[in-house]
Amino acid sequence: MTKTDLRKELLLLLLFVAPLIYMGVIWRNIPDVFGQAVEPVQQQIKTKEDFLLLMIFVFFTNALMYFLFRYLPRTDDESVSDPELMHREYYKVRFVIQIFLSAIAFIVLFMVQTSHTYAMERWAFIGIGLLITGVGLYLKGLKPNNYVGVRTPWTLRDPEIWKKTHMMASSLWTAVGIVLIAGAFFMSLITGVFVIFVASFILPILPYIYSFRLANEDKG
């Protein structure tokens, strides 16, 4: 099974909850209605409820990425030539993702705390899009391992299925990330939240289905 380093896992959890703690500290000081210093078409976050919806979106994405890397299919380490190296790589990837997502949350919270609320939903969408694109580019050249990537029974059994599945997953994640970045300039807050919820299902599920189909294509 994928080894769990308790100290590193606790640090990842701290990075995950730190923005939540920060939001709890400043929540009473957040105004019920934000000032309308810019045109409504540019400023979609107008109330405290709008802001809460945006933060739910950000924290959901944060939680999704944490659980995807923490609990998706885990296997024995027997096929790994250097399990210690892969173990370090596994946590390095998770730390980069967690720090990036926590930074996005902190930036949005700081913008609200300092009354710089201009188009903050746009920056949140762009940040999430950049992360998804980055993960997509990372998947493209990922070698078979039991720690990071699309780890299905079929990809772990066949290096060719691993390669094809990760090429497909790379294209999918990169495309979704680019769409989210581009859409940040014209999507409404509700539309952006809907898109990320849909993406949260298709990004892990489609590569899984694709690897299954590759493994069974000779059976029709």
Automatic annotation (TrEMBL):
<dbReference type="InterPro" id="IPR026272">
    <property type="entry name" value="SdpI"/>
</dbReference>
<keyword id="KW-1133">Transmembrane helix</keyword>
<feature type="transmembrane region" description="Helical">
    <location>
        <begin position="192"/>
        <end position="210"/>
    </location>
</feature>
<feature type="transmembrane region" description="Helical">
    <location>
        <begin position="167"/>
        <end position="186"/>
    </location>
</feature>
<dbReference type="GO" id="GO:0009636">
    <property type="term" value="P:response to toxic substance"/>
</dbReference>
<keyword id="KW-0472">Membrane</keyword>
<dbReference type="InterPro" id="IPR025962">
    <property type="entry name" value="SdpI/YhfL"/>
</dbReference>
<feature type="transmembrane region" description="Helical">
    <location>
        <begin position="12"/>
        <end position="31"/>
    </location>
</feature>
<feature type="transmembrane region" description="Helical">
    <location>
        <begin position="93"/>
        <end position="111"/>
    </location>
</feature>
<feature type="transmembrane region" description="Helical">
    <location>
        <begin position="123"/>
        <end position="139"/>
    </location>
</feature>
<keyword id="KW-0812">Transmembrane</keyword>
<protein>
    <submittedName>
        <fullName>SdpI/YhfL family protein</fullName>
    </submittedName>
</protein>
<dbReference type="Pfam" id="PF13630">
    <property type="entry name" value="SdpI"/>
</dbReference>
<feature type="transmembrane region" description="Helical">
    <location>
        <begin position="51"/>
        <end position="72"/>
    </location>
</feature>
